[in-house]
Structures
1.
Amino acid sequence: MALSIARALGAKAYFPVVERFPDGETHVVAPAVDGTAIYVQTMHPYPNEMLIEMEFTVDLLKELGASRVIAVIPYLAYTRQDTRHVEGEAIAVKSMLRMLEAAGVGDILSVDMHLHRLGLEELSGMTSVRLHEVSAVDSLAKEAGRFLKRPVVVGPDSESERWAKRAAELLGSHYDVLEKHRISPKEIEIRPKTVDVKGQDVLIIDDIVSTGDTIKKVIESLRAKGANKIAAAFTHGVLSGEDAAAGLYRAGADYLVSANTINNEFSRVDVGPVIAQKLKELL
Ligand code: R5P
């Protein structure tokens, strides 16, 4: 990702050396920087480790001369912990942003952020870090659309409406969003709406597939309603359970595709170009 962004911007790519000391400490060596540094960092599969790595590296880049640091974090972890559901619960996204602010991050550019309860402005208002977002949906819809015939686009919940609507516009079809109720962090219930999918191809679209339970329940409900081909397109393939992907096929998915914000066997959509385009506006 860093290389593809550097090529698109005509910039040089450097790769800081990050090691673990025998006692578990993180050790970073980075090059001196003159001007703006674009720092590309994944937050999967070890968000906590990656956060420390990012803290140390950004702090170091500032010390080594960077006047501004734009962090490109294609999959921004912790965004689902954006509110206090029970008394005393941490709003982890706020803590994370404060940490990055303290390290010297000026801007964060991410892809299809989990902005379900809070909007981009509210999240930006938590600290002085400016947040920017690009979307993988156009490319995901295009890629999945090659496999389907005039699909009905379905979002698992009201929060996915912005992506479902856009995908349907691009594919010249209809969309609907289902009702999702989260019973616990690991348990959800999908209540189908009245969308008619009998004999129709369907494209399910969402931002994150983690355990896969959300999409699995949607697939099962679509199968029960007589859908024809079913594809699922999602930006971030977190796939946290060992059985996450297999479970989707078992439930009846015919085709899965994700973006390369996290690399996995489905990440055929490259978000490097949209990120580079947005960076040109920010520089
Ligand atoms: C939640 O609102 C998100 O948009 C995703 O639907 C959710 O994070 C997926 O999680 P899982 O795959 O564990 O059901």
Note: The first helix runs from residue 2 to 9.
2.
Amino acid sequence: MSTIPRRKFIQLSAVAAAACMAAPGREARADELPHLSEDDPMAAAMKYTHDASKVDPATRNNPAADQNCANCALIQGKDGEAWRPCQIFPGKAVAAAGWCSVWAPKA
Ligand code: SF4
């Protein structure tokens, strides 16, 4: 049997629900995140690399010439930071000079 009074439980539940609704809008700071490893299974599946210059342009789905994480539509964080959050790899920071097969041009 719970020792938390019913009224207190309802109050805590309301606070927790409000926190859950507020959290998705918060963009993680790059310096709070561990760096994405090239060996991460998801990263490997997306052909992620820390160095976009090592990617053969002929293997890309998108023919745009200059492709790296810094000019990808899915990058987050601040311009100029070496490691930044990415919408494809939540909870990790990707190299601004990196690349993966999901790269998309900014609008
Ligand atoms: Fe980099 Fe874009 Fe791939 Fe994210 S989705 S890892 S920003 S190329």
Note: The chain has a mean pLDDT of 81.
